[in-house]
Amino acid sequence: MSKVFVFTPQDGRFNCESAGEYGELTHQYPEGVSPFNTDCLTDRLYEAIEDFDPDADFIAMTGNNVVLALAVALALSSYGRVRLLIFDARTSKYVERTINDPAWARGEE
Questions:
Q1: CB of 48 closer than 8 Å to CB of 30
Q2: Distance between CA 33 and CA 55 in Å, rounded?
Q3: How far apart, in whole angstroms, are the C-alpha atoms of residue 59 and residue 52?
Q4: Which residues pair with 24 in a beta bridge?
C-alpha cells in the first residue's frame, strides 16, 4: 500500500486527512528540531524518508516550507523521483504531481 509522508506537527493546525485517499498517512514531522537548525533537520529527515518508495509513496505539500523543501530535496537526491500531493483550495482536494531528476535518469548523480 502507498504511504503519504506528512511533515506537519500533529497539533491540529493542519488537516491532511483527505490525502489519505492516496495511501496510509505516515506522520514524519521532526519534533523538537527547529526548521532553522538545518543540519539537525537534514539528519532527521534522512531518517524519515529511509523507507520512502518513489514509485508508490507521496509527500503531502502541507506545512513548514523549510521542512518540505528539505524533505523533497532529500527524496529527489536519494531516489531520483518524488511524487507530491499539492492541496488545491478551489476543489478542496489534493492533486498529484511528480518531479523527476533528469541528472539521476542520465546516471549523473
A1: yes
A2: 29
A3: 9
A4: 3
pLDDT digits (tens, 9 = 90+) for 27-49: 998 888 888 898 999 999 999 99
CA distances from 61 to 3, 4, 12, 87, 108 (A): 14, 10, 16, 7, 27
Read off the pTM: 0.88
DSSP H/E element including 94: strand 93-100
Q: What residues does 6 pair with on adjacent strands? A: 27, 60
pLDDT of residue 20: 93
In the chain, domain spans = 3-105
The tens digit of pLDDT for each residue in 57-99 reads 999 999 889 999 999 999 999 999 999 999 999 999 999 999 9
From CA 23, how far away is CA 21, in angstroms rounded? Answer: 6
Burial of 33 (0-12, 13-18, 19+ CB in 10 A): middle
